[in-house]
Amino acid sequence: MLHTPIGFADAAAGDVQLSWNLIADAQQLFAYHFMQNAFLAGTLIALLAGAVGYFMVLRGQSFAGHMLANVGFAGAVGAKLIGWSPVVGLLVFCLGAALGIGVLGERNGRMQWGQGVAIGTVQTFALGLGILFVQLSSSYAAGIYTLLFGAVLGISDRDVSIIAGTTVVTLAVLVTIARPLLFASIDPDVAEARGVPVRLLDNAFLVLLAFATAQAVQVVGVLLIFALLVTPAAIAQQVTARPTAAVALSILLALLFTWVGLAIAYFTPYPVGFFITSLAFGTYGLVRLFQLLPKTRARPQGELL
Amino acid sequence: MTSKSRDIDPVPQPTRIQANARAEAFISTRQNVVQLERAGVRRGGRLLWCNMELNVRQGEFIAILGPNGAGKSTLLKTLLGLYPLHEGRLTVLGAPVRRGNPAVGYLPQRRTFDTDVRVRGRDIVQLGLDGTRWGLPVPMLKRFGGGKARAREEQRRVQQAIELVGATAYAHRPIGELSGGEQQRLLIAQALVTRPRILLLDEPLDSLDLHSQQAVSALIRSISQEYQVTVLLVAHDINPILPYLDRVIYIGRGQTAIGTPQEVITSETLSQLYDSPIEVLQTRDGRLVVVGQPEQVTYHATHSNRVC
Fold this sequence. Notes:
The complex is a heterodimer. By secondary structure, chain A is mainly α. Chain A has 13 helices and no strands. By secondary structure, chain B is an alpha/beta fold. Chain B is globular, with a radius of gyration of 20 Å. Chain B starts with 15 loop residues before the first helix and ends in a 6-residue tail after the last helix. At the A-B interface, α7, α8 and α12 of A face β6 and α3 of B.
């Protein structure tokens, strides 16, 4: 997974030509097996990141998502070091970190994510561990680069099946706990009084977040993780205040960014990560700009839909 | 008994009309909605209060008063089954207390939503109804055919609760954008949406301006009267609710004084409760001012003369 460079220059050098014939373009897009895998993995990951991201933004746990990504980096390099698939390393490390946060949070009552000193400390330690693993595994510069900035173009068939399995399980759990999780996220005191296992859901969500992060890292990399996990959800919450609609929109945007980003990157010599983050940033900027405009009377204040 | 509880309940005698109206109710009006017997609660290794004797009848409007740290919120959380009793017995609606009873509505202390919480007020209210349910959310069920009738019925109840608190005009807006008073109304709607028999409100008037304080107190009173909902309300300032109160529970120094406001909020009773001189003054417009009451329970100072 980690041996493919970011750009398409090597893989599909001169023979890619964008034309006005959309069908021909699509045929070109899916001509290579690695592109089929990229779209398949990208779609699954966007589904997961869009849905989990909504709750993450709602709960104000963006920082935790970022930390999990950094921890995942160490995991991926470490797994590569001992000859395992980086996907496995990502999953194991993210899961371990999520459970760790859960245990720490248990002791301090509900954790104050805004302060985040503990998270920051763990995060830098994980990055330091990552550097050690990089040093130990010689000649791995390209692999590091793809991990930090995304490597969706080098995803193997086995990775795709791991991603598919994780996505299905995570989404199934998320759908099952969606309403109590929403209740516990918005209104933990009342939720607890009404019998919702708030603490259990806190921990369960961290585990789901760990799965989503471990997957999203493979598309956009550790450093660009917010493009799939945070931005689509943040945009969706700006556009609509209906939870169901916001989750749907968040997923839709994550899918759109991934697909369009992959397609553009295929026909240009530039990296996928750049296009996905640019699309995310551009859309977010547009939505915020639109909100700054004087509101029309006909529209209820603060809601676009 | 070392208790100084002043539980001066007369024998409940519901009128004939009231009795008929409540004939279908699960519990007869003669039965106490909340019953505490020699109850004591321990928090952080020390007893907060003890020997509490309390019988609450259906439809009563009761304020819980006392200095910070006296255990007022703890009393509500005990009634919710969130904290266990250290001693004594507690029954709620004729059964041992259990957490998550939909017949008990709760409004915790606090709690204003950040401006960036972008969820509609209506959804917050709806969570009171379906937030405890696992599985697919209702809109999806609707789409797949099943559960359509239930979804419609739930929508109706949510709308009813919103109308009841007068929040129709802004229920569709993100809750973070609403004022404190508007948020409080929607949260009361959330507590009411399960049609509870008991409402436990923790400082619902706190952080509201004077106008909203009066409006929200009047709203709580009208709900209590119209639907025979029993209200136990923790208050910092008694004056906005004084005209509506049936009884007050004053907690101080580990003991409780219970009775009508005229009986409990007097210089004599409060001085006895705190074991220090306290004066209750009445202004010309009927407001009560308590002078000399400790604002905060300081356990170093009061430990020696505490009862618990």
